[in-house]
Structures are given as C-alpha cells and as structure tokens.
User: Fold this.
Amino acid sequence: MSLRAVKIGLGAALVILPSLAQAHLVNSGLGPFYDGILHLLLSPADVLGLMAATLLAGLHGARASRLTVIVLPVTWFLAGLAGLALPAMLELPWLSVLSFALLGVLVALNPKLPAEAVALLAGLFGALHGLLNGSALAAIGAGWTSLLGIALAVWVVALLVSAWVVTLQADWARIAVRVAGSWVAAVGILMFGWMLQ
Amino acid sequence: MADGLIAIGNGRLRRLAPLVLLLLWPVAAWAHIQSGEAGGFVSGLSHPVSGLDHVLAMVAVGLWGAVLGPPAIWMLPVAFPMMMAFGGMLGLASLPLPGVEAGIAVSAIVLGAMVMAEVRPPLWLAVLIVAFFAVFHGHAHGTELQPGQNALLYSLGFVIATGLLHAAGIAVGLIHRWTLGRKLLRIAGALVMVSGFYFLWNAVS
Assistant:
C-alpha cells in the first residue's frame, strides 16, 4: 500500500468520525470546579470586563499588572463567598454593564493612573461580579467549589493577558489594545440601549 | 508502512496536521436556543457587512485614517465604534434622528471626498466628522436590531465587525506610502464618493 493511499484512508476515516454534540455547555460533566471555569468563560459580561481590567493593567506596566493579578481574583472569590450567603439572587444589569463599559473607556483613553488605582478598579469590578456570580451560584444550588473554579480562571486569564500586554513594545500593538478597549466600551453603550428598549 | 512512519516527521504531514485537527473538531450543537432568539454573535457579526452603504463608509474611515497617519490612524477607528454605539443606543431607545439614511449616504460622500482629495484637517475636526456620521450609522443599526436576540453577543459581534472593516480600510490604506498606491487610494475615495451620491439619490427619491 502506498503512502498516499495510507494518508487518504486515514483522512477518510477521520472525516467520518462522529462529532461530539455539546448541548449543555455550562455543564462541563467534570464536576463543579470545571463548571465554574466554564461559567466564567461563557459569561460575556464577565469576560469583557475581565479583559478590559487586565488590558488596563497591562498598559500601566508590570507593577499595576502584578497588583491586579492578585487583587482581581481574590476580591472576586471573597465577594463570591458573600454572594453565596445571600438569600436571593442579585440582578444588577445596569451596574454590570456600566462596570465593563467604564473599564473599556479607560483602556481606550489610557489615562495615566497610579498602579494602586488600576488595581482598585479591578478589585471593584471583581467584587461586583464575584457577588453576582456567588448569588447566581447559590440560586442554582452550586457551592464554593464552582466559585473557586471561577476565581482561578480569572487569575489565569488576568495573568496571561496582563503579562502579554506588558511585553508589547510596538506602538501599533499598544494602540490595538486601546482599540480593543473602545470595542468593549462600545458594546457597553449598545447594551444600555438594549436595556432601555 | 515503515516509509509512512518515517514520513510522519516530514513537513508535508506536519502541514496536514491542522487540517486533520479541523476535521476532528467537534461541532457544538446549541440545542436549546429559545424560540425567536436570533443568532447572537454571528448575527451581529454579519449585520454591518449586510449593507454596502455601511461597508463603504466604514472602510473609508480606515482609508482616511491611513491617509492622515498617526495619531488619526487609530483615533478615527476608536471614535467611530463608540459614537456608532451611542447612535445605536439612541435607536434602541426609540429616540428619533431625522434623515438617517441620507446621513449615511452623505457620510460616504464626505469620507470618500476626504480620501480622494487627501484632505488633512486638524485632528479634532477629523474625529468630529467621523463621530458625527457614526451616530447615523449606529442609529440605523440600532433601529434595525430585532428584540429577543442575545443582546450582548449581538452587540459584540456588531462592534467587532465594524472594527474589522476599519482595519481592512487601514490595511488597504497603507499603500498610501507608494506613489501608485496614493493614486489608487484617490480613485478608491472617488468611487466611495460616487457610491454615496447613488445612496443619497435612493434615500431622497
């Protein structure tokens, strides 16, 4: 059998393999910790704000990034624990959108802020979304393990994104980061329209 | 077969690997989409490219930015999505804006003319011009959005598509550094302007 025939056979076998249908994406099937990770990654409002907070930290250098990488997941987790104890699910859509829209505006404008202020903003965002996540998890009977998954996913994303932005030297690359911030802000502004509708 | 095993390390099979990976990639089936909910992200992504008037104006923003050079090359694409989103918010809030379609057509005329004539106004004026027209584009999109869609994902796709159109304009506009490229850009600007007149004719007739 020629090598070409082997390749074609292998390719044909791969093509006819059945694809996995993921009908319930929020349930990872791997337990509450991984469900928590998926919950974060499938929550666009959380991801947009997380990206904006870490892009802002990255633009402000290594010190702001180090602080943010610590403050953001810790506040997210602690506020999430508080949220788990709430008797009812919190719903603050306006505040949620405002939080990521403001961070997007700050990334786009890139004002000179002290590292502590950048970390504080990230911490406020983390506290708000941690509280919302915690109360949502409590409402569906999930516990702190899922919250830990969320917080660790926040930590990993914050670490990777801010470290990547800190290393950017080229002007165009830093400008691209600011453009991304303007997109986050634009999504926030549009969301206000949707909520007004 | 031994030849095949040895060949695993060669470049051809390595090039085939991404294709095999794509073939194996599981296709997610979202089986529980609510009735009446339109496509969300993909729907938002495709909406700005569904109308030639929008596409030409957004690409022209990128072209003009490339002609103007830094810092306009990035300030215009930053200003446009934010002000377009503001216009979209007005549309979603049902706040009327007169002459939306005519405003979109005039935006193609003005932006095309700016590229064609290589007009270099002060930065604040260039940003103001782009921001002004962006409101019309946003308002049209805002009023065209249907209720019941996944709002955030729709908005995200919508904004990303707009930004990518600007990026396409900037990428094309980089030919401005060459003499022939400059001439081609001016021709492109003229085409956008002429198209704008056509859109205006349709809008007012």
Observations:
- Residues 27-38 of chain B have pLDDT under 50 and may be disordered.
- The first helix of chain B runs from residue 2 to 7.
- Chain B touches chain A through 46 residues (CB under 8 Å).
- Chain B is about 75% helix and 0% strand.
